[in-house]
Amino acid sequence: MKKILLIPQIEILNANALSSPYTIGFPAMTAWLGATHALERQLREMDYPNLRFKSMAVVCHHINLQTYKGAGDYVHSIIGTGNPLDKTGKRPSFIEEARCHLTVSLIMECEGLGFIDEDEFTDATVQLLRGKMKLAGGDILKTAQAKLQEIDDEAEHKALMRSLMPGHCLIERRDLMQQAMATGQDAIDALLDYLKVTHRSHVDEQEKITWHSERKEKGWIVPIATGFHGISELGQAKNQRDPETPHRFAESIITLGEFIMPYRVTDLDQMLWHYHTDLNTNLYLCQQNKQVNLSST
After folding, report:
1. Which of 70, 84, 156, 220 has a CA that sits 20 to 30 A from residue 49's CA?
2. pLDDT(133) > 50
């Protein structure tokens, strides 16, 4: 049995769409798990000191990536913001930011709540979200009422999945990378091989040409950022934010993910993500409770 907190239909404005140093799109899983951790800390400071969010899932119902591609353009351009004029009447310089507006539902697996007034808990959660909190760097415009639910059998699981439709949940497809790299490809070639679209032509007996476009794997496959790899030893850095915590330089870890509709999820652990740290290899990861291979489905 799992006890979950469902926060449905959160509308977010100007979320960070620069999910890694070289990918733009859906916000990184580190952003969603970071927001979950921030919410947990604020709730623990209130009347829920033993609360722990073990894992979480994100379901996207709508996304509007702020990019533009004109007629005849080869690439998309980032839509900038109209910043106020400075004292001289000129437009100030600014760094272009990849932004998106989106609507998501969050599922958080809870531990340590004990006997509480569930209405008070969900009200406190919504008030925190509607206050000064941000999600993936974006402003929360509104959200539906949060719910505490227990998922104990197949009927309750299916009811939860139905409530998340229509939408797409993000799952990890590290298995595709592993399969490709087992054949000798390096990581970047394996990643690009699954993202590229191949166009082929066919000439029939009447010399009529038809074109076909396909990708290596069926499904909505995307690159996703799932954590960081430490590239320096632990130590102190000049002007670091927290002087008490050792510092380490790190680089983003990119792998493949897939957006699937919730009705394809047969086990809640297939969509839940949690933190995982491997200090032997300096890895700080967001990974799923149970990885599922969808290649044969």
Report:
1. 156
2. yes
pLDDT at res. 20: 84
45 has pLDDT over 50: yes
φ/ψ of residue 125, rounded to 5: -65, -45
pLDDT-based confidence at 296, cuts 50/70/90?
very low
* Residue pair 24/67 in contact by the 8 Å Cβ criterion: yes
Distance CA 166, CA 245 (A): 43
d(CA 114, CA 51): 9
Show contacts of 86-90: CB within 8 Å, 24+ apart.
Answer: none
Q: What is the DSSP string of 117-178?
A: -HHHHHHHHHHHHTTT-EETTEEEEE-PPPEEEEE-SHHHHHHHHHHT-S-EEEEE-HHHHH
* 225, β-bridge pairs: 254
Q: What is the rounded CA–CA span in Å between residue 152 and residue 3?
A: 9
Q: What's the pLDDT score for residue 295?
A: 52
Using DSSP, state whether 71 is helix, strand or coil. coil
The pairing of strands 52-65 and 99-111 is: antiparallel
Q: State the DSSP code for 42.
A: H
Distances (CA, A) of 47 to 41, 50, 149, 278: 11, 9, 20, 33
Q: Residue 207 has which token pair?
A: 């010399």
Three-class SS of residue 270? helix
pTM of the model: 0.86
Distance CA 90, CA 101 (A): 28
Q: Which two tokens stand for residue 97?
A: 């930011």
- Residue-wise pLDDT for 89-103, tens only, equals 887 777 778 889 999
